[in-house]
Amino acid sequence: MIVVVGGGGAGMMAAIVAKKRGHSVMLIEKLASLGAKLKATGGGKCNLTNTLDAQSFMERFGRNGRFMQEALKNFSNQDLIEFFKDIGVETHSPDGYRIFPTTHNSSTILKALEAEIERLEIVVRLNEYVEGIELKDQKIDTLVTNKGSIQTNKVIIATGGLGYPMLGTTGDGYSLASLLGHKVSALFPAMLPLHSKESWVANCRADTIAKATLKVDIKKHAKLKATGDLIFTKNGIRGPVVLDFARELTPLIEKYGEVPILMNLTKGMNEEDIRTHLHKVSLTQKQIVDIVASLLPRALVVELLHLVDIDPSLTFKQLSGVKRDQLIKVLAWTPLHIIGSDGFDRAMITRGGISLKEIDPYTMQSKKVNGLYFCGEVVDLDGPCGGYNLQWSFSSGFLAGKLLENREFASPQKR
User: Fold this and answer.
1) What distance in Å separates the CA atoms of residue 331 and residue 353, rounded to the nearest whole number?
2) What per-residue confidence (pLDDT) applies to 170?
3) Which residue, 61, 103, 170, 237, is the most exposed by fewest CB within 10 angstroms?
4) Are residues 234 and 324 in the same domain?
């Protein structure tokens, strides 16, 4: 009996693959239904993957991205599309980049996976959670749950991270891995809104700022930046660019307490571009608030003028050269100080996890315990928005479900 712990995307994929390979499979989920977090993915639209080639895809995960090379070879974005097509789900890419089910409804994906699990007669046990894993000669022997013991020699941990605990992701996999000798790196909330020290952001909530660029204003971390749509909130910032950038900032918030960032809100215009633009518009507009409003929403313009102590009713000609320079500088790079987030309660993913050094990338099996496999968000890999994390979940679940043996655990005949 192969036991898969966790009924999310990675766990369901692992169970399906293991069953198709002829194994007897049991899927254990602590909630009353499968795929709770999968159903909420992408605001319910379920951005499954994207059209990037494997090399570009891995690069977006940063320094750990190369770990997924074998998983992507075994189950690429095209393989994912074909898999869902085979179980009755059509997909498309309306923007040529992100790939969705044509229904743009995550329930379509979940229902298809559940139907495949039922068709394969995989044993599903809901409302059950794992309390421990017992070993014999450093090999999996028994799984202990709140409902009893299960004899097994292979366990796949697919319990997810810590984000959205109400959807069942409460870090069980980290505890199980730690008890079995695995190292778990520091865990941080990622892909979530951020809080700022400045309160003026609350007055700018009506508009989306397209193609904003954010960068960290700390010399040691100056290379960290992201570009995308930004939205101001009552206590900070959100939007696609913030969701992507949060995975870089939450560790820095813990380290420094406050993280200064700079925001280019003028679609990449530099100081000289802005100076030329303002001068041109000043030929037809007189008040500085109207001139700058040709670049940014009026409510935001008023706040930025206040930042450099400029009266919005002044004309462009009334501004001194010093004030013009200050205004242009803040338009090119607006300062903001990030002081926190909503934490794991609002985090879509978790940064950190089970050390990749202790997992064989060719099999997803533990290098410490024979018969123990990991897949999905529980390991130390996280990517940006755009289908990256779901593709990784399905690819790693597929590879784990093959139940290949590690080279160091393989018999001489299999080497």
Assistant:
1) 39
2) 78
3) 103
4) yes
Q: Which two tokens stand for residue 345?
A: 């309660």
Measured from the Cβ of residue 305, the count of other Cβ atoms closer than 10 Å reads 20
Residue 249 structure tokens: 């900032």
Does residue 220 share a domain with residue 240? yes
Q: Verify that 131 and 21 share a domain, yes or no.
A: yes
Indicate the pairing of strand 154-157 with strand 208-216: unpaired
Q: Which two tokens stand for residue 363?
A: 């099999």
What is the C-alpha radius of gyration for the chain, rounded to an integer number of angstroms?
25
Q: Are residues 101 and 87 in the same domain?
A: yes
What integer pLDDT is reported at residue 210 of this predicted model? 97
Pair (42, 170) in one structural domain: yes
Domain count, the chain: 2
Q: Which residues of the chain have pLDDT under 50?
A: 411-415
Measured distance CA(213)–CA(228) in Å, rounded: 7
Res 40: pLDDT? 80
Is the same domain home to 314 and 165?
Answer: no
List CB contacts of 302: < 8 A, sequence separation 6 or more.
Answer: 203, 289, 312
Q: What is the pLDDT of residues 273-284, one digit of tens each?
A: 999 999 999 999
Q: 9: part of which helix (H) or strand (E)?
A: helix 9-20
Could you list the beta-strand ranges (E) of 61-207: 91-92, 98-101, 123-125, 130-136, 139-145, 148-151, 154-157, 188-190, 194-196
How does DSSP assign 87-113, residue by residue?
TT--EE-TTSSEEEETT--HHHHHHHH
Q: What is the dihedral of CA 156, 1, 75, 13, to 10 degrees?
A: -70
Structural contact between residues 48 and 75, judged by C-beta atoms closer than 8 angstroms: no
Last residue of a domain, one of 283, 307, 341: 341
In 3D, which of 374, 354, 338, 360 has the Cα closest to residue 247?
Answer: 338
Cβ(258)–Cβ(339) below 8 Å: yes
DSSP H helices in 169-310:
172-179, 240-256, 271-281, 288-292, 298-307
Q: Which residues of 218-227 are buried (b: 16+ CB within 10 A; e: fewer)?
A: eeebeebbbb
Determine phi and psi for 20, rounding to 5 degrees: -65, -25
Contact between 8 and 35 under an 8 Å Cβ cutoff? The reply is yes
